[in-house]
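Handout for the seminar on molecular recognition.
Each group receives one record of this type.
Step one: identify the two inputs.
Step two: read the structure output and locate the region that could contact fe (ii) ion.
Step three: write two sentences on what you found, then compare them with the reference statements printed after the record.
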Amino acid sequence: MITTFSVATKVVSGLGSLALLPAELAALGARRIAVVVDRGVLDAGLLATVLAPVDPALVAVTVPVDPDPDVAAAERAAAIAREHGCDAVLAVGGGSAQGAAKAVAIRLTNPERIDRYAGVGNVPIPPAPTIAVPTTAGSGSEVSQVLVLHEAGRPEELVVRSPGCEPDTALLDGTVLRGLPRAPMLHAGLDALAHGLETQWARRASAFTRALGLAAARTVLDRLAVAVDGVASGRNAEGGNDEVLQELLDAACAANMACGNTGLTLVHALSTAPSVHLPHGLQNGVLLPHVARFNADLSEPDVAELVAELPALYDALGFAAVFPSGSVGPAEVDAMVTASTGHPFRLNNGRASTDDELRELLAGAVV
Ligand SMILES: [Fe+2]
């Protein structure tokens, strides 16, 4: 099979790399910046830390974003950025803020409402220059050309994907994860683990994506429990786990470099139903061992070795591969199977699946 591999985003990574933010903004010619930030990050005071090295005169407006933004939320954020005459975007947060920031960057240069650009390759004009500072080690959205919006009433998420929609620069500094609470640390890590392993089962996998995805999954398996324990013990906050946090941030980014090129598979195909109101990483963490079992015959020995370590990791994390009690019933199972129908991630899974097989798979995740 002929495959292609590309990562267009410049990745600046390392403890203390936040100090380079002003130089990276200047390199993009940013003069009036819209800072699109997770509301939680803003409330926790982390934005002030991220912006500390930046000349305040360059920040035209700060736009807080709530989790899982819809079209209206993205459009509101974009309107604010336009009203302030912004010419560049700084995204600070996890996957939700990164996605909203991409929508803002697209809408600073493109005239139509963001959902008009849904699908692949439909954004006509390159977005405004963007720098992404991820504050969770999970989505890897900082190197992805995909933005996902959660539109109520649709059977699946709204996806905009175009070459050029990836941030120009990703700045990965593990110190920004010091204050991350337990749930986002845990859920984001499981999302990254799913990205790394799903690339191994993708029909479009290549030598490049296998290497990146495998290394990323290895790091999450080795380091996530240390980082999650470090929340309660205070070790993260004290800076004692900085290197672990940096490794996880790098791994999440690498996992997205892999899955951005292969596409995802069954785990993410089943976690796209907007009517299932569970955090993205939690859903994927629950689904991952079940999909790994379904895909056992696809797994190369080095992948099977990692999969065999999942139970020990989940024990260490105190995480069960079942949906929280009462959160997923027959209606949600139907919604998950419906959302996966015809979904490119389901079709990209190396083993084809029938709806009955998926229902059986999901039954194992429902208490
Ligand atoms: Fe994901």
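Reference statements: Residues 10-175 form a domain with the Rossmann fold fold (CATH 3.40.50.1970). Residues 207-233 form the longest helix (27 residues).
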